[in-house]
């Protein structure tokens, strides 16, 4: 529950209501979050959310929801923020972020599904030296068509816009955006049918370094547009776009446009440049050009904001709709008639020392926010829906899902008009649940609302193919952040919840991160994956052999099969019922598996340049030559302890390593990729 979404370390707040009063979230609930129609419209009225020192503000949008006319201030020390969107017909419009990111979230905005991101300012980026943080990230769960329009995205260490997961199925349409000084790539996308139109991409010598804050790891590889994945039959059209990414305006390595054969994943998608101006290198066998010049106009596209204030107020030229008006209907308290005969008051109550205590539950009948007519033992109010960034009530697939966050001796309340089928509390030492004013355990609430006696046979599992049903769990350390994983199985896969906790006391439950967690059946196989962290875990039931399994951050995540910790290879072996294959030292691409503990890779690629390039670098840990991504191991490569010196001449060199990279230098035009999660 709420895995990896907030920093719960040292906080300066007394309780959530005093904090919300200070930042004006109540006003936000009244206007900024109201759903509306029309294009981005200028408005002098916008809400300011001031995120406190060490806080991480997170807001999620679902079907038909809109977030607009909001300025999110993260200038306080250690403050951070993120917006997450998924589903259909959601809109993020007229939103500005003021201040640099602290590095808490992988992306400033994570979005999937059919929706629009319009007139958003992400131009303050992240401080140099913070690794792997991006502006807008589109996960592999994306389906439908998404539009990103009139956005200012600058100075991110891991892609300005990233929408290049190799199995993403939805399209992305980027229009009239300005992207500047982003490391790795300003705009990375690969899905067939996606488009880039009217955008400006440039560097000004301010690409942030992706590494330690002392600058010892000078990793800058800035591309304008790159695919990264895909296949040659997929086409991305780039029209009327102006790009200036070259050696003279980049404080490191640079390529303006690239799509070529990938050493690991093979073909990449085709990029079609039409009526574009590009000052910089265009390379790769999967790039076509039609009427392409070399004199870009780097004027910021009209309607694109240049500050957080401009974004929040709206600067779009097509200001004809008069903006979006909040729904002024006040019918929430009229108490819908219907199933009131079994209406119950469900309250979540906290001790005074509780901080950000969260909960969630599922019911078969309607659920609404409510206010109890009594106080908590410490004199606090019990009212649901006051923390708009976290409290929610949603109807999904004929069930009602609700949850939220409270603390400081306060409470949340709901009316429930049907059986509660599931209920979970994250911090039971400082929070409890009450049904109609009576304190109960979560199990008792389920029993009382259903009117049934406890079922003692719940552990028998579902009937069907359960003869080989296994529980597959992905578990994290407390310091894990957005640790990803994926696997493939031959039989049905479902989200599940383990009946035990992680070593750090977290829950193990799949499907809680709707923007990332997924289960899909494709071509007779079941594909599943997701993201978790913070000492929590994800779980699935699997009713067939697991044929492939990959973990992105094996230093902070591991996999368990029926409660037993295993390596990915052991899971495949145990579910298949086969003995381990003693000859598994080779990857699918013919390269060897890395030595134990070496999961990071450096690839120096000279295959697309005409002249030799020499390089040298050092690491703080161990380093060994590798054939990763079809690299060669040359006799003239010298590894002296932790320092490597070599030359590429029409070939590719690779190394496995751990620790940090320091003092990397390249003489020549070879490209350098540093992969932190290569294995």
Automatic annotation (TrEMBL):
It comes from the Archaea. InterPro entries: Pectin_lyase_fold/virulence, TAT_signal. Residues 287-340, 438-466, 564-598 are annotated as: Disordered. Residues 307-326 have a biased composition (Low complexity). Residues 327-340, 452-466, 570-592 have a biased composition (Acidic residues). Residues 438-451 have a biased composition (Basic and acidic residues). This is Right handed beta helix domain-containing protein. It comes from Natrarchaeobaculum aegyptiacum.
């Amino acid at each position: 529950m709420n895995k990896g979404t907030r920093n719960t370390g040292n906080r300066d707040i007394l309780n959530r209501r005093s904090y919300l009063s200070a930042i004006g979230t109540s006003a936000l609930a009244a206007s900024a979050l109201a759903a509306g129609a029309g294009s981005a419209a200028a408005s002098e009225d916008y809400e300011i959310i001031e995120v406190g020192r060490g806080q991480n503000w997170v807001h999620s949008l679902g079907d038909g929801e809109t977030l607009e006319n909001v300025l999110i201030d993260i200038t306080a020390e250690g403050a951070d923020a993120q917006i997450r969107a998924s589903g259909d017909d959601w809109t993020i419009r007229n939103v500005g972020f003021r201040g640099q990111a602290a590095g808490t979230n992988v992306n400033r905005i994570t979005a999937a599904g059919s929706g629009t991101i319009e007139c958003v300012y992400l131009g303050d980026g992240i401080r140099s030296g913070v690794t792997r943080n991006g502006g807008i990230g589109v996960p592999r769960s994306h389906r439908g068509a998404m539009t990103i329009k009139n956005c200012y995205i600058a100075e991110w260490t891991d892609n300005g816009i990233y929408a290049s997961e190799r199995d993403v199925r939805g399209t992305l349409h980027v229009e009239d955006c300005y992207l500047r000084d982003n490391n790795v790539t300003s705009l990375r996308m690969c899905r067939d049918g996606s488009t880039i139109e009217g955008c400006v991409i440039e560097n000004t010598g301010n690409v942030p370094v992706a590494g330690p804050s002392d600058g010892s790891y000078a990793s800058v590889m800035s591309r304008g547009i790159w695919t990264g994945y895909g296949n040659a039959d997929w086409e991305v059209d780039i029209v009327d776009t102006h790009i200036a990414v070259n050696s003279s305006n980049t404080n490191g390595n640079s390529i303006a446009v690239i799509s070529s054969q990938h050493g690991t994943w093979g073909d990449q998608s085709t990029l079609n440049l039409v009526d574009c101006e590009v000052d910089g290198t265009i390379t790769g066998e999967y790039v076509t050009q039609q009427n392409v010049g070399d004199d870009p106009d780097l004027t910021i596209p009209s309607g694109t904001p240049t500050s957080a204030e401009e974004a929040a107020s709206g600067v779009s030229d097509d200001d004809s709709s008069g903006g979006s008006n909040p729904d002024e209907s006040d019918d929430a308290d009229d108490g819908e008639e219907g199933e009131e005969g079994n209406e119950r008051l469900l309250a979540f109550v906290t001790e005074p020392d509780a901080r950000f205590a969260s909960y969630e539950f599922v019911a078969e009948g309607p659920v609404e926010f409510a206010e109890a007519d009594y106080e908590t033992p410490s004199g606090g109010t019990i009212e649901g829906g006051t923390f708009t960034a976290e409290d929610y009530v949603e109807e999904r697939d004929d069930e009602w899902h609700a949850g939220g966050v409270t603390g400081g001796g306060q409470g949340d309340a709901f009316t429930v008009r049907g059986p509660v089928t599931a209920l979970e509390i994250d911090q039971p030492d400082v929070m409890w649940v009450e049904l109609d004013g009576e304190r109960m355990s979560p199990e008792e609430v389920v029993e009382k609302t259903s009117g049934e006696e406890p079922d003692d046979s719940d552990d028998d599992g579902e009937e069907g193919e359960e003869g080989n049903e296994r529980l597959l769990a992905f578990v994290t350390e407390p310091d894990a952040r957005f640790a990803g994983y994926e696997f493939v199985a031959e039989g049905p896969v479902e989200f599940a919840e383990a009946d035990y906790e992680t070593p750090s006391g977290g829950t193990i439950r799949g499907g809680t991160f709707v923007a990332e967690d997924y289960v899909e059946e494709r071509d007779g196989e079941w594909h599943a994956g997701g993201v978790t962290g913070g000492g929590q875990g994800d779980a699935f039931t699997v009713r067939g052999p697991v044929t492939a399994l990959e973990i992105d951050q094996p230093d902070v995540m591991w996999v368990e099969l029926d409660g037993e910790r295993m390596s990915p290879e052991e899971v495949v072996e145990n579910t298949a019922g086969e003995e381990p294959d003693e000859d598994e030292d080779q990857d699918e691409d013919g390269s060897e598996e890395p030595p134990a503990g070496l999961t990071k890779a450096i690839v120096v690629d000279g295959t697309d340049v005409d002249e030799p390039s020499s390089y040298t670098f050092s690491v703080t840990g161990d380093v060994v030559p590798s054939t990763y991504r079809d690299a060669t191991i040359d006799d003239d490569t010298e590894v002296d302890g932790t320092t490597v010196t070599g030359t590429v001449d029409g070939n590719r060199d690779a190394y496995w390593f751990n620790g940090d990279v320091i003092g990397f230098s390249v003489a020549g035009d070879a490209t350098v990729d540093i992969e932190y999660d290569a294995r």
